[in-house]
Amino acid sequence: MLIGAAVRPVQLSELAYADTLAREFNMLEPEDALKWEVVHPTQQSFDFSQADQIVDFAVGHDMKVRGHTLVWHHQNPAWLTESKFNSSQLEQILEQHIKTVVGHYRGKIFAWDVVNEAFDELRPGELRRTIWSGSGTLPDCSYIERSFRWAHEADPQVLLFYNEAEAEVVNPKSDAIYAMVRDFRERGVPINGVGFQMHIANLHPDVASISANIRRFTALGVQIQITEMDVALPVDVEGNARPEDLQQQANIYREIATACLSHPGCTAIQTWGFTDKYSWIGSHSKHTRGAALPFDKAYRPKPAYEALRNALENGTRRARPQPEPH
Ligand code: XIL
Fold first, then answer.
1. Fewer CB atoms near the end CB (10 Å): N or C, the chain?
2. Distance from the CA of 281 to the center of ligand 1, in angstroms?
3. What pLDDT is attached to residue 135?
4. Could you tell me whether strands 233-234 and 289-290 are parallel, antiparallel, or unpaired per DSSP bridges?
5. How far away, in angstroms, is 119 Cα from ligand 1 center?
6. Tell me: the pLDDT tens digits for 20-65?
7. What residues contact 82, with CB distance under 8 A and at least 6 apart?
8. Where is pLDDT greater, at 139 or 64?
9. Which protein residues touch ligand 1 with a CB less than 6 Å away?
10. DSSP class of 241
11. Residue 125, number of CB atoms within 10 A of its CB
C-alpha cells in the first residue's frame, strides 16, 4: 500500500519535517512545485529546481513520487492566462508543456495527475469553462483526451490519473467522471486511474457512498488513489481543535483508510501535507479551520495517526490470489 504526503521543498531542510516524512511515508507528491506558475514561469523557460529537490529526496529515501499536475485552471502564470492565445496556439503550448515536464521526470515519477478538477462545482456534472476548454458556447472536453495521449507519448510507462475534488461520493460530478473514464477505456485513451482528493470538511462523510464509488470505478479497471486527504476541524485563534473533534477526525481517517483497503484497486492513501504546522487549510479558511492532518504542529502523532496506523495494520486488504502449494 502506498502511503503518501504532499511536500513543500523549503521545509525539507527542517530536520523534524524530513525525518517524519522519510520514516512514515513511502510516497510523496510536490504540493505546488510542479504547477505551471512554478515550473513554467515564462513562455520560453522551465524551472525544475524546486520539484527536483523533492524528487531527489524521494530517490534518496526509496519513496515513490506522484506528479501533480499537468493541466489545471489554478496557479497558472500570467503569461499564459493574460495573453490572448488562440486555440491552436494553446494546444501547442499545452503539448509542449506536458511533453517537456513528463519527459524531464521519465522513470522518476511513477504516476501523474494529468488533468485536475475539469468538472464544474456549481453546475453539477458539467465541464468547467477554463482557458483549456475553449471559447465556444459549450466547454470543449477534447483537451482532456489529448493531454492523456501526450503524457503517454512522453512516458509510456507512467501511470496517468484524472484527479478531482468533491467527487468522492456517488454524485453528479462523479457520474460525469465515471462516464468519461468508461469512454476513455473503451476507446483506448491511456488512463490508469482516478484520484479522489478527499478534502473533508463535513465531520460526517458518507463513507458507504465513497466505498460504492471506489467499487464502481475500480470495476472499470482503473486504480483509485486517495490523493489529497485532510479533515479540516474548527479551531480557536491558537489553531487548536476540540478533543471530541480530534476523535471524530480519527474515526474518519480510519473509515476512509478501511474503505480503500477493502478494494484491491484502491492503491494509495495520501494526505495533503502531514503536519498541522504546514497545511493549506489555515490560509484557505481564513484560519477558522485547521488541525486537519495526522501529525500536530510539533510532529506528535494525533489520534488520526493512530487510527490510520491501526487501519493499515488490521485492514482487510484482500490478498492477490497465491499459487497453490505443491
Ligand atoms: C493547494 C496548495 O496546498 C497550496 O499551497 C496552494 O496555495 C493552493 O493549492 N486541490 C488541489 C491542490 O488539487 O493542488 C490544491 O493545493 C488544493 C486543492
1. C
2. 9
3. 84
4. antiparallel
5. 16
6. 999 999 999 999 999 999 999 999 999 999 999 999 999 999 999 9
7. none
8. 64
9. 31-32, 116, 165, 197, 228, 280
10. P
11. 14
